[in-house]
Amino acid sequence: MEPHRNERTGLYRPTVPTRIPRSVPDDQFNEMFARLPSHRDRALVAFYVSTGARASELLSATQGGVDPGRRLITVVRKGSRQLQELPASPDAFVWLRLYQVEMQELIPAGAVNRCGGHCAGRPAR
């Protein structure tokens, strides 16, 4: 048997690393949110914070999966690949609508998208 060594921790008991806090103070979050460059980014962050969904799940959401009246957004869950409705904050829907209005101004009236005009709610002309 080896003689006892005067160590702070045992050989098989490593120190537990200190964890980084999982929350951001409100003032720092508000400052970061104000610095976001577009309404799209603000909408994504607002949905991310209010729903708790993964970023990849939020990016799978479609325009048809948004129900502001019921305050729900439908996403495809990562593990099960099932559609799931998640409650979201009213502010997130406000930012989403501001982004949609902004995009309507940038798309010409007669433009046809990749789906032949059927996806975005604008019929092809």
UniProtKB/TrEMBL annotation:
UniProt KW Chaperone keyword: no
Occurrences of domain Tyr recombinase (ranges): 19-125
Organism: Haloechinothrix salitolerans
Signal sequence interval, chain numbering: none
Keywords: DNA recombination
Keyword Plastid attributed: no
Source domain of life: Bacteria
InterPro entries linked to this entry: DNA_brk_join_enz, Integrase-like_cat_sf, Integrase_catalytic
Protein name according to UniProt: Tyr recombinase domain-containing protein
